[in-house]
Amino acid sequence: MAGRKELDFTYSLIDKIFRLSFGESQDFSGALYDGDFSLSLEEAQARKHAFIADSLRIEPGSRVLDLGCGWGGFLEFVRKQGAIGIGVTLSEAQLAACRRNGLDVHLMDCRTIQPTTFGVFDAVTCIGAFEAFCSREEWQAGKQDCIYRDFFETVSGLLKPRGRFFVQTMVFGKNMLANEEVDLHAPKNSNPRILALLQKQFPGHWLPFGSDQIVRDARPRFQLISLSSGRLDYIETQRQWSRKFRSFNLRKYAAYLGLVPRYLVDRELRRRINPFEENANRLCFEREILDHFRMVFEKT
């Protein structure tokens, strides 16, 4: 699993830039356009939050646990609905941002949460964090299914009877390459190279092999209620993220400049942020190397 060091590299590094681009409590996961790409990013994120809340039967007074809560976008939505939200993250910067905005967020590994930690919940969400639960090394050691089954067992123990669990995650798609084909030295914008760049950008992450693996590992503790692909939604989300990150803001561009000294000496950072490369993440979705799913489960 990606630990605190890897997630700080991925998220804490961009904390200030993210907040200056998107606002204090925005969501950094795929939005829900549902075919209407005239929606703004904010409208599509609000549509996703409403979809999750409706699917999980969240109402005023419901207790909701958000695993890998990011900057608190869904927790903010939950609070406005009159529900009680608790979040966990492994990014110290995200923790600080959430707490500044009055959200109940804790710095901890979600795999360690027990019913004695926060009590039990009516609903649990995992919006993007599932991607970080298994590393490539753990997959190579044959541990991936066991990791997922253990995680579903943990979540089951945190839910009331017939409580619901929402998972939104990237998965390997139908055009995924064999691991030995992935090559950082392959031609620019080739599939082997963009996959290698993606692995550098998200250290400690290894994805499920399609939605079927997740559904299988959720049994027998959960039954699947609904499943939908968000691949096209995620492509549009990334386009709008790019525009947000590029939009001019004096403080934001000062923050970009503040990264220059580290950029010059940190080879891994240069691989992660290269203005001369196409967006590897978006290309993987456009080429169906990766897919993206929203899944609603109910505790059996």
CATH homology superfamily name: Vaccinia Virus protein VP39
Number of domains: 1
Please state roughly what percent of the residues sit in beta strands, choosing from under 5%, 5-15%, 15-25%, 25-35%, 35-45% or over 45%. 15-25%
Uncertain regions: pLDDT < 50 for 5+ in a row?
Answer: none
Per the CATH scheme, the topology name is: Rossmann fold
Descriptive account of the structure:
By secondary structure, this protein is α/β, with parallel strands linked by helices. It has helices at 4-10, 15-22, 41-55, 73-80, 92-100, 115-118, 136-140, 144-158, 191-201, 210-218, 231-246, 250-258, 260-265, 267-272, 280-286; strands at residues 63-67, 84-89, 105-107, 121-127, 159-172, 222-229, 290-299. It contains 15 helices and seven strands. A seven-stranded mixed beta sheet has the order 3-2-1-4-5-7-6, with helices on both faces. Helix 5 links the parallel strand 2 and strand 3 (105-107). The two termini are 27 Å apart.
Element layout with pairings:
Elements: H1 4-10, H2 15-22, H3 41-55, E1 63-67, H4 73-80, E2 84-89, H5 92-100, E3 105-107, H6 115-118, E4 121-127, H7 136-140, H8 144-158, E5 159-172, H9 191-201, H10 210-218, E6 222-229, H11 231-246, H12 250-258, H13 260-265, H14 267-272, H15 280-286, E7 290-299
Parallel strand pairs: 1-2, 1-4, 2-3, 4-5
Antiparallel strand pairs: 5-7, 6-7
Summarize the structure.
The chain contains 15 helices and 7 strands. The protein has 300 residues and is α/β, with parallel strands linked by helices.
